[in-house]
Amino acid sequence: MSAVLYSYRRCPYAMRARMALSYSQIPVEIREISLREKPSSLLDISPKATVPVFHQGNLVIEQSLDIMRWAIAQHDPDVWCPTDLKAEIAYLIDINDGPFKKLLDSYKYPERALSKGYPTRTEVLEAAVELFVEPLNQRLSKNKFLLSNQISLADIAIFPFIRQFSMVDPVWFANSEFHELNKWLWHHLESPLFTGVMQKYPTWNDAPQEKK
Ligand SMILES: N[C@@H](CCC(=O)N[C@@H](CS)C(=O)NCC(=O)O)C(=O)O
Q1: Closest CA to 160 of 92, 103, 96
Q2: Which residue's alpha carbon is nearest to atom 9 within ligand 1?
Q3: Does ligand 1 have an atom closer than 6 angstroms to the CB of 51?
């Protein structure tokens, strides 16, 4: 039964879902949507209407992490989630998706940060560094990837957010003391897994399909 992923190319959640599906070799039709004008075929299966959403037959998966976990449950050639690392993987992803994502949003949009009580972008940056950037860099000074010398679900789930973080001020990030994190980021940016899921698709529109 053919599978569909409602996606948005630049969305970090959609990126990690596309990477996991690609790694697990799940054939999937990517439907690039407009966030301003979401297609009714998406709203019909997922009224909350965030991307990514995976749809195959009766199965609808509405959270990027659930899509990743479902994908690797189908096929996981490099063992992205070894049993003994499960808890630590979940712990890192929780920090990423929770407090780090909040700081990242404030760092990207400083006017919103002001309204949340962070006086300056610099303070937001300092908080993000202390919470996540520095600890990740430390981990990477011990191992090639975040948990070990093997890539894990945590690397792929977190990478699109560190990419976004680095892009707020690329010169600062590249010249920062976080050499290991820079190296790790570039490893993923240049990986066939990432470049392979960043191809461009025309925006999906239900109507022309229905006319067929
Ligand atoms: N918890 C969701 C978050 C997904 C999410 O927030 N995606 C954003 C795009 S990056 C979105 O669809 N936002 C809805 C909108 O902008 O209307 C997941 O992990 O899949």
Answers
A1: 96
A2: 11
A3: yes
pLDDT tens sequence across 7-60: 999 999 999 999 999 999 999 999 999 999 999 999 999 999 899 999 999 999
User: What CATH superfamily classification does 3-78+195-211 receive?
Assistant: Glutaredoxin (3.40.30.10)
For ligand 1, what atom is nearest to the CA of residue 36?
A: 17
Which residue's entry shows tokens 């997922």?
A: 46
53 Cβ closer than 6 Å to some ligand 1 atom = no
The alpha carbon of 176 and the centre of ligand 1 are apart by a number of angstroms equal to 29
Cα of 141 to ligand 1 centre, how many Å?
Answer: 32
Quick check: pTM over 0.90? yes
Q: Which residues of the chain form CATH 3.40.30.10?
A: 3-78+195-211
Write the CA distances from 118 to 94, 107, 112, 165, 179, integer angstroms. 22, 10, 9, 17, 27
Q: Are 54 and 70 in contact (CB under 8 A)?
A: yes
Domain with CATH 1.20.1050.10 in the chain: 83-191
CA–CA gap between residue 122 and residue 119 (Å, rounded): 8
For residue 12, how far is its CA from the centre of ligand 1 (angstroms)? 9
Name the residue with tokens 């992205």.
80
Tell the CATH topology of 83-191: Glutathione S-transferase Yfyf (Class Pi); Chain A, domain 2 (1.20.1050)
Encode pLDDT of 126-173 as tens digits: 999 999 999 999 999 999 999 999 999 999 999 999 999 999 999 999
